[in-house]
């Protein structure tokens, strides 16, 4: 799953992911921030917010160190 695609079209991307896993689509997957379950991870603040594009290009702050990774996985046309 590419984050950019997920942010741009969450219903399509989440639907495709669930279909790949042979799981039924559930509308709650589009609103994980509405789940009242406890979250005990470093991302606890993030999961309480709707899917958004706020950090979409933060990776560019580290671009100069990414050459080895790009060489290993190829350019993903971000």
Structure summary:
With 78 residues, the protein is mainly alpha-helical.
Write the layout of secondary structure elements.
Layout: H1 3-8, H2 10-20, H3 67-73
Describe this structure in words.
This protein has helices at residues 3-8, 10-20, 67-73. The chain has 78 residues and is mainly alpha-helical. The longest helix has 11 residues, at 10-20. It is globular and about 40 Å long.
- What is the distance, rounded to the nearest whole angstrom, between the alpha carbons of the first and last residues? 13 Å
Would you identify the regions where 5 or more consecutive residues have pLDDT less than 50? Answer: none
Q: What percent of residues are in strands? A: under 5%
Fraction of residues in H or I helices: 25-40%
Please report the number of helical segments: 3
Tell me about the largest β-sheet: none
Following the backbone from N to C, one meets helices and strands in this order, namely HHH
Structural class: mainly alpha
Q: How many strand elements?
A: 0
Radius of gyration: 15 Å
Approximate shape: globular
Using brief descriptors, characterize the structure shown:
mainly alpha; 3 helices; single chain; 31% helix
């Amino acid at each position: 799953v590419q984050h950019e695609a997920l942010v741009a079209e969450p219903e399509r991307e989440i639907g495709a992911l669930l279909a790949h896993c042979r799981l039924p689509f559930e509308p709650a997957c589009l609103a994980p921030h509405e789940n009242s379950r406890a979250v005990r991870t470093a991302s606890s603040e993030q999961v309480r917010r709707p899917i958004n594009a706020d950090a979409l290009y933060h990776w560019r702050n580290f671009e100069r160190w990414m050459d080895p990774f790009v060489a290993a996985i190829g350019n993903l046309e971000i």
